Amino acid sequence: MTGIFALLFAAALCLAGYGFYRNRKMYRVIDRMLDEVLDGEPVSVSDIREGEISALAGKTKRIQEKMELEIQHARKEKEQVKSLISNMSHQLKTPLAGLMMYRELLEAPDLPQEKRKQFLEKMKQQSEKLDWILKSLFKMVRLEQGAIVFEPGAYSLKETLLGAVNTIYAKAEKKNLQICTEPFADRSVLQHPKWTGEVFENLLENAVKYTQPGGEIHIRVNSMELYTQIQIQDTGMGIPPQEQTEIFKRFYRGKAAEHLEGSGIGLYLSRLILEKEKGYMTVSSAPGKGSTFSVFLQNCQKEEGKLSSP
């Protein structure tokens, strides 16, 4: 019996020793993996064979990968914020400088009344430009962050398009530009009239701005199986091929348009709006031959009193 007890005692000691050794080994492995995570080094799992430790190493590796993705995302957001602030400062600098300059000129006691009226009109224009830039920036940022939520529905395309044309008609008339809208049957498309109207206004504003006096702007509507295509064509300066993908980026201004007033927000904002409406936009252009912007909106049908979209 004494021999059996001795053997059992020895076995217990061996198990305890193995357990202590195994726990120390696990502690060392965990300690090493934590150091690798903290130092930003890859978690070494290739030499780990034991089941529990191997599973722990796999989870640690996934945690590290998730942390790295979060860090990369935070860095990207930081760069985006820096870029946004820099671009906003650049956009606001010109109208603010203009306002300050005209204010100083208006302070002159011997300024003729006619000049005073001119400077006041210039201040009004700069104030309106500043207001438009700020509103566009706020819309852009809120759309990017998902703070603005709107549900598109089935609405009349003709009403939305007509409202946009009426908004810019006076500017086109002032430049002696002819707006030609080809007749089309009204239809319901998936849109939010206010936001879609802003897309059309941005495109028509650009057409007026970049077309020489006496030019033309053509509006066409083409029905397709799933989408309705709305084309806005001008006879303006056109866009080089290498810039046609760049113009939809935030704050981008083409080289030929740098001397003209603009912010580089309109097309980017329009693209964001169309994405919310499950639509899209393309451009076809050549320098000196004008540009054609095509907006594609989903068709909607009325079925048994209900509205549906493909």
What is the structure about, briefly put?
It contains six helices and nine strands, in the order H-H-H-E-H-E-E-H-E-E-H-E-E-E-E. By secondary structure, it is an alpha+beta fold.
Q: What this model shows, in words?
A:
- The protein has helices spanning 2-39, 51-106, 113-144, 157-174, 193-209, 266-276, and strands spanning 153-156, 178-181, 188-191, 216-223, 227-234, 280-285, 291-298, 301-303, 306-308.
- By secondary structure, it is α+β, with helices and mostly antiparallel strands.
- Helix 1 (2-39) runs parallel beside helix 2 and helix 5 packs antiparallel against helix 6 (266-276).
- The radius of gyration is 32 Å and the shape is extended.
- This is histidine kinase.
- Residues 64-91 form a coiled coil.
Features:
310 residues; 55% helix; 15% strand; alpha+beta; 5-stranded mixed β-sheet
User: How are the strands ordered across the major sheet?
Assistant: 2-4-5-7-6
Coarse morphology = extended
Share in β-strands: 15-25%
| Radius of gyration using CA atoms only | 32 Å
> Would you tell me the structural class of the helices and strands?
alpha+beta
The total strand number stands at 9
Our count of helices gives 6
User: What is the makeup of the main sheet?
Assistant: 5 strands, mixed
Q: Give the end-to-end Cα distance, rounded to a whole number of Å.
A: 86 Å
What is the string of helix and strand elements?
HHHEHEEHEEHEEEE
Helix content: 55-70%
* Contiguous runs where pLDDT drops below 50 for at least 5 residues: 1-18, 303-310
Mean pLDDT: 77
